[in-house]
TrEMBL record:
Belongs to the PEP-utilizing enzyme family. This is Phosphoenolpyruvate-protein phosphotransferase. Residues 250-536 form the PEP-utilising enzyme C-terminal domain. The keyword Ubl conjugation does not apply. GO terms for molecular function: kinase activity; metal ion binding; phosphoenolpyruvate-protein phosphotransferase activity. It catalyses: L-histidyl-[protein] + phosphoenolpyruvate = N(pros)-phospho-L-histidyl-[protein] + pyruvate. It is found in: Cytoplasm.
Amino acid sequence: MQQYSGKSIFKGIAIGKIYFYSKGEQQVKRHKIEDAAGEITRYNNAKEQAINELTKLYEKALKEVGEGNAEIFNVHIMMLEDEDYNDSVNNIVENQSMNAEYAVARTADNFYEMFSNMEDEYFKARAFDIKDISERVISILNGASTGSDIGNEPVIIVANDLAPSETVQMDKDKLLAFVTELGSSNSHTAILARTMNIPALIGVKIEESWNGKMAIVDGYTGTFYIDPEEEMLNEYKAKKEEEENSRKLLQDLKGKENVTLSGQKINIYANIGNVTDLAAVLQNDASGIGLFRSEFLYLESDHLPTEEEQFQVYKQVAETMAGKKVIIRTLDIGADKQVDYLNLGKEDNPAMGYRAIRICLNEPEIFKTQLRAILRASAFGNISIMFPMIISVNEVLQIKKIVAEVKAELDTVGIEYGEVELGIMIETPAAAIISDLLAKEVDFFSIGTNDLTQYTLAIDRQNAKLDPIYDAHHEAVLRLIQMVVDNAHKEGIWAGICGELGADLSLTKRFLEMGLDELSVSPTFVLPVRKEVRETK
Ligand code: PEP
Ligand code: MG
């Protein structure tokens, strides 16, 4: 047995086989071949396998995200069957006597160049699809695992690092745990692990040779055991059962009020990234959705989601929550959440760069498309809109103007929308410090402690090295939270927390004392926080 220590980002126990996940980007070796016909057969077989994988992905996406979003996999299949693409690969193999991997990579580069130079936005966007399908074929030719397809058996994913876009594409039913070498506890992948309720460790020096081995992840102690002995395996099976039992006990709290022993009430809402998280929200009895990270729709797509695609998702969330509050946060892309099709470009300091509301105010069409979709969906439930990364009153005024324009456009064409509250995230020190002024302009505040801590302490939340000093309990952060709550209440609006700190049970009492009106946490934390609230005097 081997034993490794890491840092736990979600407590829990997982027992199962290791799946070594490697990045999509493949190394392509270039070498001469003698048997061109054999090489072309090898290519054709890889292409067939890629088409089979894409067909399966289409079916999965159809179930999880609907026909509109699934369609992209059909487009990928068509591209792989494209005559020009295949002619180019065959030609490089036959006439230059080059290996299939190189022929595919070369073809991908040429087609990428061609598509990205086209005027038409649709074709421009296809340039990335060409890269994507080609990498799939190359990884099959290389014998590596492809994309985020992790097979059919539930597994413990071991990876160097995981981007949020890779994590969201994985089949949640097949994920027992994550173990990564890089990553930090406040990264979005870590947040996803918590939302999905799966144990996760970071900072473990990983090895590819572990692939397929039996392992145990202990998210309580941050330990990773490989090839555990029978005795240890049984011990952990028993612990896991105990864990299940205490989870079941929490279920008794369903339907109970979030009220302290002295009668103080607080709302406990849930954070989600997609419609697939709704089941967990209902199972854990959250009273609403305090943060819908809408950017995950953009991350899961290979093109800017259309108004209709977004509308369908927001409508589904609003309808499922059946009149309970649903706070949709507008696009918070940038920093660690990147999509190729937006061509945001490399920045020296992306966390402080072109992201979130800055993009939306600079590209009003992207913003208006999303606002139209949200407003249309608001006719089907109780939707509020929240804006990320605010630093000034002026931004809020611009936002309100744009929202009014969109409403006027909908009025002109007779499309209905509901009463929508407008709120902002307080996640920059600037917003916290001027929260007295901002409170006059909005209906609510939701404090994003993940970014607020990052910017207050000048500690990159993504930097694993700084994890030990990323201290969300820092007095500076807590004072800012108190200041925001007080300023909100002076103007008669409510204030909540939707950052990870909201689920920190050691602070629940303090948050109640501070007068917070709401805590929005990963669905799995709703009942533990309720328990803590109910036991507080
Ligand atoms: C936050 O910054 O606390 C927050 C909730 O937003 P995100 O984690 O998505 O940046
Ligand atoms: Mg944030």
